[in-house]
Model the fold of this input.
Amino acid sequence: METSTYMTFLMKGTVGTNDTITYSKLVDIKDNPEMEGAPEALDITTLSDGSRRSIPGIKGDNSAKDFTCNYDEDKYDEIKALEGTEQYLALYLGGTESNGVVTPTGSDGKFTFKGYVSIRLASGSVNAVRDMIVSVIPSTIIVKE
Done:
């Protein structure tokens, strides 16, 4: 069934007792990148082939994932303090809303992984909202739960 991007959340995990990970919203995001890269095409073409042939290789794109957010000085400082340390992270799809309060649930899917975050002020222009960009470099495979 089709779903909307409404209620998509960038989450940060905290390790608790018995190594359980509890996720909470890191920051409100305005967009999200592709979470899983396509496999690289491995060329198997021979000199007898009339066109190129390929087989799938490993997933190749595990580059930085950029999330655009509205600039908030406190959130900027909070995320800046995480730089250089590996974090449990997730992209939650789905949530609930009650009395105007939105709660992430991941009811439409959760993509979990570990990675390193960094933050930077985005470029600006006349009469525009000031943005910041959270970049995440995955250090593990991104898994859909």
